[in-house]
Amino acid sequence: MTTDPKTKVHTVNNAVEVQEQVYRFQSEGYVKENIFVLTHDKSRTNRLAERTDAEKIGIAEEGLGTAIANIFRSSGDELRAKMRSLGLSKSDAERLERELDQDKILVIAWGGREYAGEDYDPYVYYYPNYVY
User: Fold this and answer.
1) Predicted local distance difference test score (pLDDT) of residue 42
2) What is the DSSP string of 59-72?
3) What's the CA gap between 48 and 87, in Å, rounded?
């Protein structure tokens, strides 16, 4: 892991950009197990994870309770819960879910800390930068 385990979220447009961003995160010291890809479509997420050096957000990252709850959630609720488990704030998860609605792809380098409830990481880095 990098000496600065900051969670970073990059929004990209296609598989080539996913792979490029995964390589950048790896060159920064993030291990493969902490680099995730997320799309609005589960099968697309699976395909991208298989074809790149990225992972899917799973039970180990979400926590068992969130993973079980996701079985009963809508797609949007599930996506936001996955993002929240990595430390993204509720408002950022909602904003990024709207990006996913527009066919964007998230590549996330996770700092490694698990989050639950309303807890979040105020130091997550987003690219492109978002102006509130």
Assistant:
1) 87
2) HHHH-HHHHHHHTT
3) 22
Q: Whats the size of the chain, residue-wise? A: 132
Rounded to two decimals, the pTM is 0.84
The 3-state DSSP class for residue 83 equals helix
Report the pLDDT averaged over residues 90-99.
95
What is the four-CA torsion angle of 23, 115, 83, 93, rounded to 10 degrees? -120
Structure-token pair, residue 77:
């609720």
Residue 63's pLDDT is: 52
Helix (H) or strand (E) holding 35: strand 35-38
Taking CA atoms, 37 is separated from 27, 48, 88, 105, in Å, by 17, 7, 15, 7
Quote the Cα angle for 104-98-23, to 5°: 30
Q: In what order do the strands lie in the sheet with 125-127?
A: 35-38, 105-109, 8-12, 125-127
**In contact, 119 and 2? CB cutoff 8 Å:** no
- The helix/strand/coil state of 109 is strand
What are 93's two structure tokens? 């998860």
